[in-house]
Amino acid sequence: MPDLSTPTCDLLGIAKPIVQAPVSVVPEVIAGVSNAGGLGILQATWLGASQTRRRIAAIKSLTDRPFGTNYVVSLMGENEHADLDYALEAGVPVISTFWGDPAPFVERVHAAGALLFHTVGSAQEARRAVDAGVDVVVAQGVEAGGHVWGEVSTLALVPAVVDAVPDAHVIAAGGIADGRGLAAVLALGAGAAWVGTRFVMSRENRMHPEHRARMQAARETDTLHSSLFDIGWPDAPHRALVNDTVETWLAAGSPPSGERPGEGEAVAHHAGGEPIPRYSMEDPLESMTGDVTSMCMYAGQGIGLVNDEKLVAAIIDDMISQAGAILGSFGGD
Ligand SMILES: Cc1cc2nc3c(=O)[nH]c(=O)nc-3n(C[C@H](O)[C@H](O)[C@H](O)COP(=O)(O)O)c2cc1C
Q: Whose CA is nearest to atom 15 of ligand 1?
């Protein structure tokens, strides 16, 4: 296996420059990534206190390696702040924030001995975050899956951010789904790749089978960047697969919230029977029933490169081997 470790890997105490974006709450995904030499990150915003405790304990029982927890700042209330404090008390070494101001988190995270990551969409924002004390900026390109903060593509954003914060660590996000993407962002000056969509489609991730089948079949042209699935998180652009909900809305002339086709109807149900309305921000879970492929299926444009489901360790090893071969082929002497 080629050694692609970077100064960012040294900072994080990992061997391979791959960070799993917070796209999963499944402990086997997060711990699997960390055990394979990358950094796994738990999507912690919506867990609540008891699940936060359970999932962190489960991850710790599966790995001794570093991992992180992630929070959407604009959606945090008292309970989510308490959950973050619990993660810090439990010794989670990396806290990642998204969608809001990271400054109020700096002292709190550092006082617990952890590192603070913050996701940005521009060079100016990266500079502001680093000036506030953020340790690692994640530069997220517009091709990313899930909620998308900025409007610049990864290829243009990453070098601009690297130039803006030469004293800081930069991790590249958006559209990185194989070793070619990893090699590319290392060449752009990133210290690691932040990979979401590819890990959504890992074998350990617990997905509804119909969701998994749609993701596997999707091409790079099959996603839409919009604010359509806004119930639960309004006015927040995101990228997801085009499905019947998206197509019907587009065919109706993309009407605003409140005037959209099928507004108010339930498309699926939670295991406990609670309805999931059309345009909900929730994505399909294994335990849900109903028309789950009418729900929001977050995916980046890199989904076109994801045509199989692999164990997380295989995803990482394949990315490292492929990137190593590419970077080695430009060898020089
Ligand atoms: C299913 C899914 C859920 C996501 N949830 C979060 C989240 O809770 N917090 C966050 O910071 N980013 C979240 N993201 C965005 C990722 O952190 C990341 O920026 C993105 O996946 C990178 O692009 P890629 O999907 O092309 O690899 C999510 C992305 C996906 C696909």
A: 146
